[in-house]
Every structure is written in C-alpha cells, then in structure tokens.
Amino acid sequence: MSEARIVEKRKLGEDYIYFVLREPVIASLASPGQFVMVKAGEGWDPLLRRPLGILWAEDEHFALLFKVVGRGTGILRNLDCGNWLDVIGPLGNSFSWNDNGPFLLIAGGRGLVPIYFLAHALFKRSLPFVFCVGFKVKEELDLLQLLEGKNWNVAVACEEKDEKVFCGTVLDVARMQLRQNSFSKIYVCGPHDLLHSMAVDAEFAGLPIEASFEALMGCGYGLCLSCVLRKKSGEGYFHICKEGPVIALEEVSW
Ligand SMILES: Cc1cc2nc3c(=O)[nH]c(=O)nc-3n(C[C@H](O)[C@H](O)[C@H](O)COP(=O)(O)OP(=O)(O)OC[C@H]3O[C@@H](n4cnc5c(N)ncnc54)[C@H](O)[C@@H]3O)c2cc1C
Ligand code: FES
Q1: Which residue CA neighbors atom 45 of ligand 1 most closely?
Q2: Which positions, given as ranges, span the membrane (predicted)?
C-alpha cells in the first residue's frame, strides 16, 4: 500500500480526469498493462478500491486517466494537486512482445490507457506500430491531447461525425490497417463488445492477439473470485486481476 501525491490534474472532455502522481516505487516497477487499486474515499465508504490502469510511468511518477462513471470515480474527480491517493500496485501482468514488429495497437474509449503505456514502451525501443484509437462521441476526442507531440503512427475514429477524424468504429480503422499492412501481433483494450467482435471476426483470425480485460474487482489479487473469465481449453477460469488483465484472446471462452 502506498501514498501517492497528486502533482498534476487535468480535466479532458466532460468525463475524463488525468492525474500525474509521485510515487517512486510504483513508477519504477510498472509495466504496460498493469493497474493499481485505488481507495476512493476516506474511511470505509466506499469499501472497495477501484482498479485503474497505469497510463505511463517514468522516473518517480506515474499517471492515471479515468472516466467518471459512478461513486468512486466521482469522489476521485474532486481531488486536487497536493492531495494524496492510497494505492496498491502495480498489480496484474503486462503485455509481452518480441522484436518482430510491426504491431497493431487498438484502443476503444478508456481502453486507451494500457495501450498508450504499451505504445510508449515500443516507441522507446524503436519498434514499429500503428496505434488505432476510437471514441463513441466527439467529446472524447479531447483525449487526443495526450497524443500531441508524440511521433507515433496514429489512426483515429469517432462514431459521432467530426470533420477532423474518420467516422466509424475503431474496428473499421483497424481492419483498414490490416488490409494495407502486415502485422506480427495485435494488442487491444476496450469494451467487452470490442474484444468479442475481434474474437469472432475472420479478419483477425490467425494473428496472435493480447487483450486487456476489465471486470468487477473486489480484491485485486485473486481472493474474491469476482473477476473470473472462462478458459477456452480445459476446465477453469482466469482471474483477470492475477492471470490478467492481459490475456491471449484465443484462450478465452466466449
Ligand atoms: C484492470 C482494470 C483497469 C481499469 N482501468 C481503467 C482506467 O484506466 N480508466 C478508467 O476510466 N477505468 C478503468 N477501469 C474501470 C474502472 O475500474 C471502473 O470504471 C471503476 O471501478 C468504476 O468505479 P465507480 O465507483 O465510479 O463506479 P460504480 O459503478 O459506482 O462502482 C460500483 C462497483 O462496481 C465496480 N465497477 C463498475 N464498473 C466497472 C468496470 N467497468 N470495471 C470494473 N469495475 C467496475 C466498481 O469497482 C465498484 O466496486 C479499469 C478496470 C479494470 C478491471
Ligand atoms: S478481484 Fe478478487 S479475485 Fe480478482
């Protein structure tokens, strides 16, 4: 358990909050795909910590980006620079890669978080990738501020019409990329529907796909069984908090 101090706060669009936190131990240990369990309020209410992915980690700092959806994230939204966050982490596994790119990165909505961290890691190692990011509504395009100044190959989609970006889903732009280029591996994070579509779509079949999953999480380290996902082969389940959140898409039973 660590106390992380908020050193930067930004509001992105109506619903997203970006925090930079100072906590040297988490910052030095974190890898792309990992998450932290955050205590949202004082005392026992709310009782359960909230899982949030790590957006980037460098030197003594790491960042979070979250969408305000309910009580916990609603409380976190009101914190400010100088406040302290009680966090446990880094938790879970991380994405794996070798030196044989290029890689196709796919992020839907707040699924941007772990994919963004992965992009940082690949870029640092000069490994080639295309980063497809998609949003449901125009307002979420404010998240693109996080990509400003990055020398990354980015393809953006938005389901709501906007003159600056492609109108459609993130899968539409990902499919276009697949037809134009060859990739050795795909990484994805986003809503369950997105992961399901990719698991059943013939265009994605045959390529290794690592997906970062979300689930309701009670404990964050394998005790409460609230986060399980049925395995495709054999008996049993993955704990998304412990054997995940990154799991090979082809190993999951839909
Ligand atoms: C590994 C992991 C990483 C995540 N990373 C991010 C991130 O980087 N940014 C981000 O915006 N969100 C992320 N989420 C989702 C985030 O945890 C939920 O949006 C958040 O817990 C909602 O809390 P709340 O109190 O505001 O909502 P409420 O609906 O009030 O929460 C009630 C309960 O439901 C749980 N819950 C509700 N929706 C979800 C959900 N989709 N996933 C998990 N638990 C849920 C809460 O933990 C809580 O126990 C992540 C989830 C997981 C599992
Ligand atoms: S969150 Fe408790 S087992 Fe995964």
Answers
A1: 216
A2: none
27 lines ligand 2 (CB under 6 A): no
Q: Using the structure block, give the residue that is written with the tokens 């992965």.
A: 118
Write down the pTM of the prediction.
Answer: 0.95
Query: Is any ligand 2 atom within 6 A of the Cβ of residue 241?
Result: yes
**Spans of the chain below 70 pLDDT:** none
- What is the structure's pLDDT at 43? 79
Ligand 1 center to residue 142 CA distance, Å?
Answer: 21
Q: Which residues, at least 6 apart from 8, have a Cβ–Cβ distance to it below 8 Å?
A: 18, 19, 20, 81
Question: What's the one-letter identity of residue 125?
Answer: R
First to last CA, the chain: 35
Pairing mode of beta strands 237-239, 228-230 = antiparallel
What is the DSSP track for the chain? -EEEEEEEEEEETTTEEEEEEE-HHHHHH--TT-EEEE--SSTTSS-S-EEEE--EEETTEEEEEEE--SHHHHHHHT--TT-EEEEEEEES------S---EEEEEEGGGHHHHHHHHHHHHHTT--EEEEEEESSGGGGGGGGGGTT---EEEEEESS--TTSEES-HHHHHHHHHHHS--SEEEEES-HHHHHHHHH-GGGTTS-EEEE-----SSSSSSS-TTEEEBSSSS-EEETTTT-SEEEGGGB--
Q: What is the CB neighbour count within 10 angstroms for residue 72?
A: 20
